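Hey, resending since the last one bounced:
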Amino acid sequence: MCEGQPGSGGPDLVGRCDTGEERDILGEKTDDKRISLTEAVRSIQDGDVVGLGGFTLSRTQTALAHEVIRQGKRDLTLVSTSVSMQLDLMVAGGCVRRIEHGAASIERFGLLYNFRRAVERGEVEVEDYTHLGMASRFLAGEMGLPFMPIRGFMGTDLERYRRSDQKMAVIDDPFDPEGSRVVVLPACNPDVAVLHVQKADRRGNVLIEGCTFHEVQLARAADRVIVTCEELVPTEFFLQDPERTTLPFLHVHAVVLRPWGAYPTSCYGYYDYDREHIEYYQSLARDPDQFEQYLDRYVYETDFDDFLAQSLSFHRAEHLRRSMDSMIYGGEY
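The structure tokens again:
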């Protein structure tokens, strides 16, 4: 029994304790956490705070976002360092009430037009931080701390806005005789974190290749973690090379095998982002009526396999794979 659990007789000094029992997304004891995408999304409740992994054009949870829209989830609060198409899709689908983030865009492809319209109309609440600010909030949540001090906000408009809504404070540094001050940000502990990763096993061990962004802290701060993966590997893969484990099984509650689950954004080591489809998406997202046709064609009236079949020909898929290989290994493609 961990300190801080009922009956332990001790305070919760570390915030998040592991009982040693493996449990899935529904709280059942199991060492096989593989479920379908439909089942995984069904565990997300209306009103949940959902933490998003990935970063703009890298490993966004597109497949999961499609399923969230199809199941008609409502009043979600999305939290992340930098959000992209998955946010824009879920906002267009009417799933999002609030966003807490450091940035929102599709980088070279521009703004998130559905998201911008919803904010301008007052349909979605926005709480702005910075990338470091959100990562620090997840770090505080991971460590079981109520807040995390940083210096980055001092003297900015963000400091003024967040202090006015009591989501930030400025305190004296107790160890500085000169009397300097620091900003403190509240911890963020999502109800569920969703990550798209390269490899996982049935128990929930996870390997993220390339940049991990804020995802380790996010997963450890969340109450539940859903992982979609490009490839399901045997547990021996992690036993043979354990230091490559990004997240051990005790932090993960559901594993969904979903190849191309980040498409049309990229997944390091597997495929590049699809410039043509993203440009097509953006051309429709500028007009809400046209974008409703996009949702009908690619989300409401189909599943993700059909979306891929419509959007991603064999030759296009090979082009994106070769493009990724070229970035990693060099050479022409």
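Confidence is low (pLDDT under 50) at residues 1-19.

Sorry for the duplicate.
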